[in-house]
Amino acid sequence: MYTCCIVFLLSGIVFRSNKVFCFYSVIILTMFNGLRVGIGNDYEQYLNIYNQVNAGLYSAIEPTYILLSKVFFGFEYGFNYLLMFYSFLTYLILYRVIYEYKIGVLSSILIFSSGFIFYANNQVRQALATALFIYSIRYIVSRDFFKYAAFIFFGAIFFHFSSIVLIVAYFIRRSYFNRLFVVFCLCLSFIIMKLNLVGPIIAKIISVLPYYSDLYLKRFTDSYIIQEGSGAGIIFWIFVAIFIVFYQRKTDSPVLVNLFIVGTLINIVFINYDIFERISFYFIYIRFILIALIMKHVTTKNGVLWVLSYSILIATVLFSGCEILYDLNKHGVTPYINLLVEESV
User: Fold this and answer.
1) What are phi and psi of 142, to 5 degrees?
2) For 68-72, what is the mean pLDDT?
3) 3-state helix, strand, coil in the chain (%, to 5)
4) 3 state SS for 163-228
5) How far is 289 from 104, CA to CA, in rounded Å?
6) Gap between the Cα atoms of 206 and 204, Å rounded
7) What is the pLDDT of residues 303-344, one digit of tens each?
């Protein structure tokens, strides 16, 4: 898996053109994602839906998935072609943003080390909707609600229904939050998560709803996922978030930073609740862009910041490497099996 990281680094030297580098990266990631077998917690569910759609037994999914399932069904490895199509669009859109920011090589490493590629390997439809959302953030910045809404509605209809909630992201604060206030909120959110204070409150609110309270309460309870462990992984990403917050002005992108902060808080507080956690995924993976933007503006002359930036980069690589080595990644990314290799690596 991490061989691809080396390829990205080498290609950054070979290709002097940022455009060529980005296109090359899209192709590599498309092949890497599309040719996988059994990778991702949702893989079997996607494959099952693919087969049921073609048997005429399932239609409760976006029309794009239905159409692609029917188009590729007649081909050998048709399901992998479907995955490749989603991956290609995801990274094509994402690298369009990366190209505009001129953060190619750094982003290609951080796509791995920040966890986005594992997320995209697992939740292929939502990852594509996430890429479209990241692209459409420009319209939040320019205060063009109609263009932003058009992108969000398009993503919700054709890629992932849940992305309709991103409409509210348009109203995010457009100036930086106070750094100490954000750090306080991050620490508080961790305490709330460890004590599980939010779940019982939501359950009580649902229980007083008329008519359908029992049904909705059962659905909410069923979405609860017991997270075992010390919370060390969460603490690690909190430290990364604090780094981003303290050097947020280096990004020159307050909207990006604020969306990331909101998503991180949701992710921490609702870590045990699948529905809310998945909503947070639209925001938290913006971190790979933010870290790259900070590093883009850092040189050895910045001293401590230069050391911190590369320490964060190395730490994320090591952290993700350990997740893979010990099979701790929540998206189910190991062992990696590829159609061309036909064995786990």
Assistant:
1) -85, 0
2) 94
3) 75, 0, 25
4) HHHHHHHHHCCCCCCCHHHHHHHHHHHHHHHHHCCHHHHHHHHHHCCCCCHHHHHHHHHHCECCCC
5) 10
6) 5
7) 888 999 999 999 998 998 888 777 777 766 666 677 766 544
